[in-house]
Amino acid sequence: MRKLLVSVLILYTINSASQIDANALLVLPAETTTSINSIPIATIQEGALIFDTDKKKVFEYNGTEWKELLTPPSVFPKTGNYTLIEADNGNILTFNSTTDVTLTVPSALPIGFNVSIYQIGNGKVTITGAGGVTIKNRLLRFSTAGLDAGAGIVCTSTNVFHVTGDLKRN
Questions:
Q1: Which terminus of the chain, N or C, has fewer Cβ atoms within 10 Å?
Q2: Is the pLDDT at 8 greater than 50, yes or no?
């Protein structure tokens, strides 16, 4: 009998602990895309959040525009030399070239900037820094190792980037 009582008590505790009080939930204002875009910019506080009922996504106002939160990465194919831009942050670049290409990392990308790259052609991808940018790798490997090799690039401090992945020396 005691085991039964303890079991019932445990089940009751688990059940009641797993219920969420609907009054405790955070609810964002919800508007259509048109309504959101018609809000006078001068009245929007930086950091404001809103749910777009048309796109079914949450947006944050960054001081100049509404930016979608929690966006999945996109894949951008490249076929030749390329210089990273801030819009590449969080995305995936695929390099499909028969000859070797250079990926240049410019200065002034934000700390935390990160991008994944993949060599999907025969041409290797060599990562270099421009104008005051330092590229670091523990083993001094800065080129993709071959077909289907992948690498990650992360800005760890101002103009300092670490690369990791399936890499080889130039």
A1: N
A2: no
Alpha carbon distance 66, 104 (integer Å): 29
Residue closest to 156 by CA, chosen among 94, 114, 100: 114
Say how many Å lie between the first and final Cα of the chain, rounded.
Answer: 73
Q: Which token pair is 39?
A: 């809000």
**Which of 53-57, 60-64, 69-73 shows the lowest per-residue confidence on average (mean pLDDT)?**
69-73
Question: Is the domain 21-71 a CATH 2.10.10 member?
Answer: yes
Q: Please report which confidence band the pLDDT of residue 159 belongs to, taking 50, 70 and 90 as the band edges.
A: very high
pLDDT digits (tens, 9 = 90+) for 63-91: 999 998 888 899 999 999 999 999 999 99
Q: What whole-number distance in Å separates Cα of residue 3 and Cα of residue 107?
A: 67
For residue 70, give both structure tokens.
Answer: 């929690």
In CATH, what is the architecture of 75-168?
A: Sandwich (2.60)
Residue, of 34 and 20, whose pLDDT is higher: 34
CA 94 to chain centre: 16
* Whole-angstrom distance, CA of residue 58 vs CA of residue 40: 19
Phi first, then psi: give them for residue 104, nearest 5 degrees. -100, 135
Q: 11 is written with which tokens?
A: 């089940």
The residue ranking higher by pLDDT, 109 or 21, is 109
Per-domain boundaries in the chain:
21-71, 75-168
